[in-house]
């Protein structure tokens, strides 16, 4: 029996994991079905677009510009080891657009938006506001979840596009300001090297990450336990799950776009 | 008429409701009393469909509530929650007019606002409260706003979950009076859960005592003091000794 107990524990953990995966999948499918079916709550969608998109611009912009600038310095110093300093514009562009732009924006959204959604909805649950919505003939999935998920799907790709541009500009500023690159040549190299698939992959990743980040915030908020501890656990769990899922989805999408 | 027949509900090993049978006549005010954690709120949420019962049936005017059209069913109800459960992000008038701004009862915005202000006036709040946020109000004012929201769509049935919890005695008396007046003038069926005996005497036509998951006693409020039921006697007199185990 003692020899078998690790297998029992492994089995229980696997079953628990599968149960969570099942619940999250059902929640996601229900949420997406509500995105497509009326009634639609325009005010809630507008507020979610404002909160997730517009109000995230400062943190996305600052993250992107510093990352682009650091990337330019790294590529320049690393490339110098084999006389490849000139590739800074191309690598900054491809690095930001294909990888760092979407991932960093996704993680910033997980930190800023997922946590906020989870805490807000969990607090609403703890204070019976979710029950109040139901008694007022309003489906919380439609009123709270669908607008936030739709806003994530719409606005995060736009944030990723903004982050890509600002990140490239960060690299441009450092390269032309302190590394001696010609501004016009830098921009030309950047534009010539990027392909449509790079931009498409970046936007698709943004859409996927926006959906994951908002879904995790909503799921953990709706599944929150009681009291302040329940809200805290929901918030922490939502950010952890969103960050891990964003990185896993990034790997899968990168493989789907570029492994062929 | 609301009729509960053999309703049971358990959360894991915790059997909150065990074979509950209860009838609430149309137009009457039923108050459910019982200690904390005896399942009063769960009973109320079972009727509303917020918590599905494990067994038994709940009917409203003879129709099984689990088979009724949800929107039409819920449109007949108003509810005042224990902590008022006002939506933090909406100003007071939009909280009150929530049901009137969307769904099947939707009205033009100006009309919904006018109704909200009228309902706020009915519960003793001035129109200038309408544009404030719930967080800017005192506990008593929040309860009044919750009451205004509960009656905004003129429901046939109103539920009150611990309406005076957390209020000072004077404000609790005001809320009790408001509930009694509003229920009487609307001709609504009311169901209140509370352990505040002042509320019971002010609001109830009939009283039911819930303890250990079952209805221990039910009868008119006038017979509460002479019920002869040891559970009711202990509860209304607030004694630590008796059949209800008091944890010290």
UniProtKB/TrEMBL annotation, chain A:
Annotated GO CC locations: ATP-binding cassette (ABC) transporter complex
Coiled coil ranges: none
Database matches in InterPro entries: Permease_MalE
UniProt-recorded Gene Ontology molecular function terms: phospholipid transporter activity
Domain of life from the UniProt record: Bacteria
PANTHER family in alphabetical order: ABC TRANSPORTER PERMEASE PROTEIN-RELATED, PROTEIN TRIGALACTOSYLDIACYLGLYCEROL 1, CHLOROPLASTIC
Name of the protein: Membrane protein
């Amino acid at each position: 029996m003692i020899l078998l107990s690790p297998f029992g524990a492994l089995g229980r953990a696997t079953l628990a994991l599968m149960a969570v995966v099942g619940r999250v999948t059902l929640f996601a499918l229900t949420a997406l079905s509500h995105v497509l079916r009326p009634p639609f709550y325009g005010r809630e969608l507008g507020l979610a677009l404002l909160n997730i998109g517009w109000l995230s611009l400062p943190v996305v912009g600052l993250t992107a510009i510093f990352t682009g600038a650091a990337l330019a310095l790294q590529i320049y110093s690393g490339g110098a080891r084999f006389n490849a300093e000139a590739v800074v514009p191309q690598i900054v562009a491809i690095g930001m657009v294909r990888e760092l732009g979407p991932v960093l924006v996704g993680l910033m959204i997980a930190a800023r938006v997922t946590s906020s959604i989870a805490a807000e909805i969990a607090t609403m649950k703890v204070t019976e506001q979710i029950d109040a919505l139901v008694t007022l003939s309003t489906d919380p999935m439609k009123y709270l979840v669908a607008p936030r998920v739709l806003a994530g799907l719409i606005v995060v790709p736009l944030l990723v596009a903004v982050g890509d541009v600002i990140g490239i500009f960060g690299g441009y500023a450092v390269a032309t300001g302190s590394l001696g690159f010609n501004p016009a040549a830098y921009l030309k190299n950047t534009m010539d090297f990027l392909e449509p698939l790079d931009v498409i992959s970046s936007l698709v990743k943004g859409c996927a990450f926006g959906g994951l980040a908002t879904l995790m915030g909503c799921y953990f908020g709706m599944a929150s336990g009681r009291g302040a501890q329940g809200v805290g656990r929901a918030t922490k769990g939502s950010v952890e799950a969103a960050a891990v899922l964003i990185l896993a989805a990034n790997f899968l999408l990168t493989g789907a776009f570029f492994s062929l | 008429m609301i009729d509960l027949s053999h309703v049971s509900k358990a959360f894991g090993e915790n059997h909150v409701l065990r074979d509950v049978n209860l009838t609430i006549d149309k137009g009457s005010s039923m108050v459910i009393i019982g200690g904390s954690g005896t399942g009063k709120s769960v009973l109320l949420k079972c009727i509303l469909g917020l918590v599905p019962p494990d067994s038994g049936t709940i009917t409203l005017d003879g129709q099984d509530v689990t088979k009724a059209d949800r929107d039409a069913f819920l449109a007949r109800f108003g509810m005042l929650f224990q902590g008022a459960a006002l939506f933090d992000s909406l100003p007071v008038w939009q909280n009150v007019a929530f049901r009137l701004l969307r769904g099947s009862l939707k009205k033009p915005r100006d009309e919904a606002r006018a109704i909200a202000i009228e309902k706020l006036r009915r519960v003793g709040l001035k129109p200038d409260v309408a544009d404030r946020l719930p967080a800017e109000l005192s506990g008593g004012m929040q309860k009044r706003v919750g009451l205004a929201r509960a009656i905004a769509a003129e429901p046939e049935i109103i539920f009150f979950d611990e309406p005076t919890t957390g209020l000072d005695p004077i404000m609790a008396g005001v809320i009790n009076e408001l509930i009694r007046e509003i229920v009487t003038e609307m001709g609504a069926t009311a169901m209140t859960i509370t352990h505040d005996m002042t509320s019971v005497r002010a609001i109830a036509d009939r009283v039911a005592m819930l303890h250990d998951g079952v209805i221990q006693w039910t009868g008119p409020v006038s017979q509460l003091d002479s019920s002869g039921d040891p559970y009711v006697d202990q509860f209304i007199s607030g004694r630590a000794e008796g059949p209800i185990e008091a944890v010290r």
